[in-house]
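Can't attach files on this board, so I'm pasting raw text. These are the components:
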Amino acid sequence: MRAIFDQELSQIGEDLLHMATLVATAIRDASQALATADLQLAEQVIEADLALDELERALDERCVILLARQQPVATDLRVVVSGLRISASIERMGDLARHVAQVARLRYPEKVLPESIRPLFDEFAVAAEKVAVDLVELLQSHDLNKAAQVEKDDDILDELHRQSFTSTLGPDWDGNVSQTVDVTLLGRFYERFGDHAVSVANRITYLVTGDLGDGEPNNL
Amino acid sequence: MRAIFDQELSQIGEDLLHMATLVATAIRDASQALATADLQLAEQVIEADLALDELERALDERCVILLARQQPVATDLRVVVSGLRISASIERMGDLARHVAQVARLRYPEKVLPESIRPLFDEFAVAAEKVAVDLVELLQSHDLNKAAQVEKDDDILDELHRQSFTSTLGPDWDGNVSQTVDVTLLGRFYERFGDHAVSVANRITYLVTGDLGDGEPNNL
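---
Top answer:
Structure tokens for the assembled complex are below.
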């Protein structure tokens, strides 16, 4: 029984890693589709999100079956329940990458962003890809330095989000209303993308150390 | 054992109901604070969200302890795991009500919205309170007509969200950039509020019928 259980736990870890890898690709491609008005790439991201949703469903099913059949307790139980929560966060990151791609598709063949704010969104793109890649490495290694790095990446996304408000509300803003709306939504999507990564990082930290960072449920 | 388990399951149901009731109050008050630039009411909503977060933590802890001690299977297991998921959605609805209140607080003593779009946000307020109240009644009764009603309420919120874009992007829009940003964010907050209510309704429907509406994991 224990060997099967360990194998199934390890499979959950691999599935989460697979999902996070797909999300890292999705946010990179979505940012590029946004920057270059690449319709085909935008549609590719939107399409790929379906696979991610399906992976979440399959993983959740496996977690519940595992709870029912193996009746884990203590750490094992924490791992399985955390698996359920982490998959939900990663799936949501995929949705947010898709939302970015959908804005790019909606405005095609126009580029979404006025020129003045493109450098800021280049920074969003770099920071969001970094948070996703650091999350992949955290899921691979369970190295808590990576969890700390995810937090730092998220701080950058939060700062860029603040700067996006400063830009649109500042005297030099030359975007039209549609661009103001898009910048507001896109900034929010990137910011939430980082929040979910931190939520995953906190859960993994807790699994490793028993200490779940501030503002998170302290039981999983 | 079974009597204790039933009691604990019933406690989970009561806690979820309590959380949903707080959320219905929060969204009503947040909308009113927004409409009337009521700083005190906005701060009350923001403060009250802390209690909701704490309720989620306590409920999650109870669910995990229940999984560990009682090792439920089949329907009982589904109920406990669904409890974990439903509490996360309701907690998130509380966050979104808080976000609405935070926008009201940020712009105080100004009213956030230009006059032309206030009627639309009056409709948002009514629809969002209705989705929350219908969710409370669904949690109380497990009456699937209420689940269908939550879906309909959410359709209205989606339609209002579309109208908010039509307004800001239309020729008659007289808001400044700051108001455009606020309307964009507020519309999104109300729309997501409805999405989470539907997610809860789908999970309850599945617990009652075994059929979880489209687009949702089919295992819980």
